[in-house]
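Pasting as-is:
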Amino acid sequence: MTTSPTLPGILFVWTSADPEHERDFNRWYDREHVEERVRIPGFVSGTRYQSVRGPRKYLGLYRTVSLNAFQTPDYFKAFGQQTPWSVTNLQRMRDPMRRVCAIEAETGMGTGAWLAVLRLGAPAIGQDAQAVAGMAALGEKLLQIDGVIATRLLTPDAKLSGPLPAEQKEGRVLDPIFLVDASSESAAVAAADAASAALGLDGAEAAILQLSWQLREADLQAA
């Protein structure tokens, strides 16, 4: 699926790590990788989460001004010339999932301490304006739940969503992803259940994650 390059974007990286090297994996993420990515022109923020329920332990979300940020010489240089520490830890990923997505149907604002992640299956929602409008309407309804502060529909771009070195390449499904930001775990769970019911999904399969930390482009400028 190809999406509009002018839409805001997110690099979505969801993975577990080799337990034997997990401490170094997190040090790499926290001391090098997030800052390295946020310093790329067009990147707005890098945010790390840890799962309390879900198939993978760690989620990194890197927001960009637009999908064009993933097609610049600066990005290709960072992606193609990894540091030795990066090369080592990319190989320590277990069952990784990398997607470069357009952000659509965004409602509310802010970053919550808790995040619900719903994979929507195969339909290419991003190519259907009516379906995108429907997801925006669902997001507005979820904002009525106390503690829900924002929702986003992520539509993967097939051209930009190349797999990570350790990622399973056969049978990859670039399905849309629905994110719900909340200020409490109970609100994230309630929103995941409500969204799953509205979309005909199994609510038990929605992942619930807790915010670890966030680095913004503005933080780097202030430093």
